[in-house]
Specification:
The chain has about 280 residues and is an alpha+beta fold. It has five helices and ten strands, in the order E-E-E-H-H-E-H-E-E-H-E-E-H-E-E. It has two domains: about 5-35, no CATH class; about 55-285, Histidine kinase-like ATPase, C-terminal domain (Heat Shock Protein 90, 2-Layer Sandwich).
Length: about 280
C-alpha cells in the first residue's frame, strides 16, 4: 500500500495510506487518502520522537559551540586588557593585537556554525602540521590563562602532518588549556608537547582484530591537584562538571572528545596528585 504525507492545521506531518477507488475523472482513477485511526496515532508519535531527538542534538551542539565562542572572546578580551595595561609598549601592542584578531576570527567562524547548526565538513579539512597548530594555540592560551600560569611548548623539528579542520583542532586544544588553568587556581604550569605514537585499535566496529595506527599527538599537561579516579570515567560526558554552575558548562571536554572522534582520533587521560595530562591523538598522514 502506498503512503502520502498530510499536514493538518496543527502543523504536524502525518503519513497516511493511499486507497485508490474506482471513481474516474477524465479517464484516470482518483486517489483518496483515507487513514484509519491507528496509523495516525503511531506515525504521529514516531514523528514527535524523531523531532525531540533532533532538538536535543541541535541544542547540545549549539551549547557546545557557544561555549567555544565564549572561550575565543575570552582570549581577545585578555589581549585587549594587556594592551590597556601597557599602551606604550609598541611591540607588545602589536603582538597582542594580532592574537586578539586571531581569536575574534575564530569566534566569527564559531558564530557561523551556531547559526547553521553545522559541523565542519570535509571541505574544511586541509593537510596541516600539528606543530603549527600547537604553537598558535600557545600564543592564544598565554593571555587567557593569566599571569600566574606559565605556558610552555615542546615540538619536534620534524613536521607532524594531519588532515584536519584546523580551527576545530585549535579550539579543542584551547579547551584543554583552559581546563588546565581552572585546575590550578593558585597558579602553575601548562605544557603543550607533540610527538608521534602508535596505538593498536580495533580493525572494525565489531572489535574483531586490531591494527597498528600511527597518530600525531598533542599532550596538554598541568601541575594541578589531579582528577579523582572515580570521576575520570565521567569527565567527557556532556554537561558533567565539578565546577559551580556559573563557572563551567561541562561541555569543554565533551567537545574535545567529539572533535577527536570526528577526525578518527582518540583522547587519552592520565591523572594523579601531581597533575593531569590529556592527549589528543589524530591520524598521522
Amino acid at each position: 500500500m502506498a503512503h502520502c504525507c498530510l499536514t493538518p492545521p496543527g502543523g504536524h506531518h502525518l503519513g497516511v495510506p493511499i486507497i485508490r477507488v474506482a471513481a474516474r475523472r477524465g479517464g484516470a482513477s482518483t486517489a483518496l487518502a483515507l487513514p484509519p485511526e491507528a496509523p495516525f496515532t503511531e506515525m504521529t508519535d514516531a514523528h514527535h520522537a524523531r523531532h525531540d531527538q533532533k532538538l536535543a542534538v541541535a541544542g547540545r551542539l549549539a551549547a557546545g559551540l557557544v561555549h567555544d565562542f565564549n572561550n575565543a572572546v575570552l582570549v581577545a578580551a585578555a589581549c585587549l586588557d594587556l594592551i590597556a595595561d601597557a599602551p606604550e609598549d609598541a611591540a607588545s601592542v602589536r603582538e597582542q593585537s594580532r592574537t586578539a584578531a586571531e581569536a575574534l576570527r575564530r569566534a566569527s567562524e564559531l558564530a557561523r556554525r551556531v547559526a547553521t547548526f553545522s559541523r565542519p565538513d570535509d571541505e574544511q579539512r586541509r593537510l596541516t602540521d600539528l606543530n603549527d597548530i600547537v604553537r598558535s594555540c600557545a600564543r592564544l592560551a598565554a593571555p587567557a590563562t593569566g599571569p600566574g600560569i606559565d605556558v610552555t611548548v615542546s615540538c619536534p623539528t620534524q613536521p607532524l602532518p594531519i588532515v584536519v579542520d584546523a580551527a576545530q583542532i585549535e579550539q579543542a586544544i584551547l579547551n584543554l588549556c583552559l581546563n588546565a588553568r581552572d585546575a590550578m587556581p593558585q597558579g602553575g604550569r601548562i605544557r603543550l608537547a607533540t610527538q608521534s605514537t602508535v596505538r593498536w585499535v580495533p580493525r572494525d566496529a565489531g572489535g574483531r582484530g586490531r591494527t597498528a595506527t600511527t597518530y600525531a599527538v598533542v599532550e596538554v599537561s598541568d601541575t594541578g591537584s589531579g582528577i579523582p579516579h572515580a570521576l575520570q570515567t565521567r569527565v567527557f560526558e556532556p554537561f558533567f562538571t565539578t565546577k559551580a554552575p556559573d563557572q563551567g558548562s561541562g561541555l569543554g571536554l565533551a567537545m574535545v572528545r567529539a572533535t577527536a572522534l570526528a577526525h578518527d582520533g582518540l583522547v587519552e587521560l592520565t591523572s594523579d596528585a601531581e597533575g593531569t595530562s590529556f592527549r589528543l591523538l589524530l591520524p598521522l598522514r
